[in-house]
Amino acid sequence: MISTRILTRRRLGAAGAQHVPARRRRRTRGFVQVASKVTADRLHLNAFGHAYLGLGAVLICVLFYLALAAQITQSSYEIARLQDQQRQLLAEQDQLRYQEVTQHAPAQVQGAAAQSGMERTAPTKYVSSQPVAIDLKAAIGAPPTDMTPLWQRMMAAVVNRIVGDHPVMAATR
Amino acid sequence: MAAGAFGYRPPGRLERATSTRLRIFTMLVVALLLSSVVWARLAYWQVMRHGQLTQQASAQYREVVELPAMRGAIFDHNMTQLVVNTTVYSAFVSPDQVPAAQRLHVAAALSSVLGVDQNALVSTLSSTRKFAYVKRRFSKDKADALRSMKLPGVGLEEEQQRSYLPGIAPGSTLAANVLGFVKYDGSGQYGIEAQYQKSLGGTPGYISSYRDLANREIVLGSHTHQDPVAGSDLVLSVDANIQYAAEQALADGVKKARAESGSVLIMDPKTGGIVAWADYPSYNANNFNQTPTAAFKDNVLSYVYEPGSVMKVVTLSGAIDKGAIKPSTVINDPGALYIGGYRIADWDGRNHGNINYTYVLEHSLNVGAMKAMQAEGHQAFYSYLQGFGLTQPSGIDVAGENFVPPPAADKMADSQYATTAFGQGVDVNMVQMLAAVNVVANGGKYAPPHVVERIGNKINPVMLQAQRQVISPDAAKQMTRMMEAVVQHGSGFTSRVHGFELDQAGKTGTSQIPVNGKYTLNVWASFVGFLPSDHPRFTMIVVIRKPNVPGSDKDWTLNDGYFTAAPVWQKIAQTMVVSWHITPDHR
């Protein structure tokens, strides 16, 4: 079946088509409409036929959607499984990192060194220093000779004895 | 007839029609009423209860899960990781999902893997409870073992945990007091973890998706996802090796002195960055939930003490800078001074005669410190206290700083000025005191103390601030010479490091501890110093609290800083010299 419109257009040819005003072209039906009309004409479909055809199309769409949804759901389960696996691997990685860091921790290094018989010694000759001009073994230096006049010291002793001990804030050094 | 007998009369057409209409009308009314009831009910559920029903339905198939942000790691100055995030697991049971016949089997399996009491588990499984934890926060290998058993009604929950490096002893972790720890809810407690909670914690994300009956995620449908923003990593100025050496030396020192506790703080003189921050006794941050809260107290920052003679460095530095005294200025020290009605004596109570200020510092004489303060004047002395940072908190970036402000300058009595000059009657924390002495090491500039050098990719702004000049470089140099003399000829002789005898500066401090307003025989013993003296690589303070050296009951000076704190300082300094390849200055 060929629609009258198509026949008309064929008759007019390419040259005729050029003269079709723009406003008429706007009324041209879309491909789907034309195709469905052609199909319906060829299949001799009545109104019920149209309805069944529509329902069929909807059914196909629904089935397609369901298949797609099932596929996506399946994929999401797979993603969830992989995410779980990833979490476990990350946990393992964290644990390994802690082990690694602990291996290099000062406490572990010292423990390992001690186990293998190594010992830290206080270095005494790691730097060449100039000769020391002081007696390092001497204790705190003795106080210098008291130059306070004797009468002052005597007076202080007398005053201290009379006045007695006042509360001392603190002895600090 | 029959009809007549019963009084029945067939209805007329009109009556029949009326009756039919009435019935139809009645039926319609009834139908309308019924349908209106249905519609009203529908409207009630659909309109009135719409919001609630939507929420209930949404709760069944939609789930919003928070995605926790990865907490930032903490590194030391040499990029050694000090804290690692690890995943731990918690096992729970749903007793109603465990068949009665399998209770014993499930309890036995859980007991064998997790080491929990089997009888208690059986009673839990026999109860009507819906949920119960079996054990919390165990390692992955145990979780894997449980997972492989596929026990009915038993589930595993993943949780994040902060793991800290081992410390000097099995029951401690490295730098526990400065790092703090993170509670199970992800909030940082104490130290760096608390102070930098916002930076370390990051921003959690969330995922909102559909779930099926088995609670599996269905990607289909609307699905919103906000990625979490991980916390920033922190790089500290701390050196893990020095930290470890400091903790070890401190523990030995505290045990040797039979002291209550002790602390060590080491600083980079140029930047103010903290190199080591050690407390003894300390605690195990990996096992914080079984540690008494009192153990979390950090004595470096949250404990204020009277610094004792270490304060003389501040007093004399100020007086020299002011021009009131010189190291060679001679004064007379009769052994005690009467100030404000109090007789305030030297530690030995002896008359020292005419002495200079270098001698005052060498032998830690209180009279000399008081005379320097008097020469300088109260107002200048107070302003130097401010300059050295002793009248305000140090502002260090660690949580929990304790600070006792001194009275205002005009509220301080003469006697208080006098005692403050030699470090009694004034409360400071160790960070304040170290930063103050570090002014001398840093050419007269105050370097703000800090622990964090970098937050993510950004440098800590404190490091970019200009350092304030407290005393002149010349005054700082003069004080350095005086502190060298303390080590060479005075009370600091026990801190001498081999090879640096002429090139290290220090000062001892011993102050009596007041209880209920009266000073006791218990002391805080301390030593502060830096090395090499002209181009110092570190400044260090050691404080030993309540030492009780054998024989100190007869000779209390055995508890002094020179005998308890300075040897600890020496031991740590020795390690640092080797570790950092420090050589003496050539003069």
Describe the overall structure.
The complex is a heterodimer of chains A (173) and B (587). Chain A is an all-alpha fold. Helices cover 65% and strands 0% of the residues of chain A. Chain A contains 6 helices and no strands. The longest helix of chain A is centred in the middle third of the chain and has 57 residues, at 47-103. Chain B has 2 domains: 66-113 and 126-236, Penicillin-binding protein 2a (Domain 2); 240-285 and 295-579, DD-peptidase/beta-lactamase superfamily (Beta-lactamase, 3-Layer(aba) Sandwich).
Short précis:
The complex is a heterodimer of chains A (173) and B (587). Chain A has helices at 4-18, 22-25, 31-43, 47-103, 106-115, 150-163.
Q: Element order, helices and strands of chain A?
A: HHHHHH
- Indicate the overall shape of chain A: elongated
Quick one: CATH superfamily of the largest domain in chain B? DD-peptidase/beta-lactamase superfamily
User: What is the radius of gyration of chain B?
Assistant: 38 Å
Distance between the termini of chain B: 154 Å
Unreliable stretches of chain B, pLDDT < 50, 5 or more residues?
Answer: 1-5
Number of helices of chain B: 19
Return Rg of chain A in Å.
53 Å
Describe the structure using short key phrases:
heterodimer; A: mainly alpha; 6 helices; 0% strand; elongated; B: 587 residues; alpha+beta; Beta-lactamase; five-stranded antiparallel sheet; 24 strands
Give a topology summary.
The complex is a heterodimer of chains A (173) and B (587).
Chain A: H1 4-18, H2 22-25, H3 31-43, H4 47-103, H5 106-115, H6 150-163
Chain B: H1 2-5, H2 13-48, H3 50-61, E1 62-67, E2 74-75, E3 81-93, H4 103-114, H5 118-126, E4 132-138, H6 140-149, E5 154-164, H7 176-179, E6 181-182, E7 188-189, H8 191-195, H9 197-201, E8 205-211, E9 217-218, E10 224-226, E11 234-236, H10 240-256, E12 261-267, E13 274-280, H11 311-322, E14 330-333, E15 336-339, E16 342-345, E17 353-356, H12 357-362, H13 366-376, H14 378-387, H15 414-421, H16 430-441, E18 445-446, E19 452-455, E20 458-459, E21 468-469, H17 473-489, E22 505-515, E23 518-531, E24 538-545, H18 561-564, H19 566-579
Parallel strand pairs in B: 2-11
Antiparallel strand pairs in B: 1-8, 2-3, 3-4, 3-5, 6-7, 8-9, 8-10, 11-19, 12-13, 12-24, 14-17, 15-16, 18-21, 19-20, 22-23, 23-24
